């Protein structure tokens, strides 16, 4: 059974915002950056535990993969699914990320 990758609403919004920000300067590089991010995420199907444990939650199944300037935070449902929680730019405070707020 193949592992499925699911992007949360926040992660999808993150990708859109990354694309829109880079697109201001270059459509080519905006597309390339999104393709590169998606390619590294796709590799998680082969090695789901590739990222390190996400220290803010200290849960073995919530991990983060560092790619370029991004922290790709994901949850593992072993042998079933990888949920991409957020794609967070390192220059921003993780405390301000909506994926970790108590609000809906």
Percent of residues in helices comes to 25-40%
Please tell me the total number of domains: 1
CATH class: Alpha Beta
Rg, alpha carbons: 14 Å
The count of β-strands is 5
Sum this structure up briefly.
This protein is α+β, with helices and mostly antiparallel strands. The protein has helices at 9-23, 27-42, and strands at 4-7, 52-53, 62-67, 70-77, 81-89. The termini are far apart.
Polypeptide structure, described:
This protein has 104 residues and is of the alpha+beta class. It has a single domain (4-90), classed as RelE-like (YaeB-like fold, 2-Layer Sandwich). It is 30% helix and 28% strand. It has two helices and five strands, in the order E-H-H-E-E-E-E. Strands 1-5-4-3-2 form a five-stranded mixed β-sheet. Strand 4 and strand 5 (81-89) form a beta hairpin. Helix 1 (9-23) runs antiparallel to helix 2. The protein is globular, with a radius of gyration of 14 Å. The protein starts with a strand and ends in a 15-residue tail after the last strand. The mean pLDDT is 90.
Record keyword descriptors for this entry.
globular; 2 helices; alpha+beta; 104 residues; 30% helix; YaeB-like fold; 5-stranded mixed beta sheet
Outline the fold blueprint.
Blueprint: E1 4-7, H1 9-23, H2 27-42, E2 52-53, E3 62-67, E4 70-77, E5 81-89
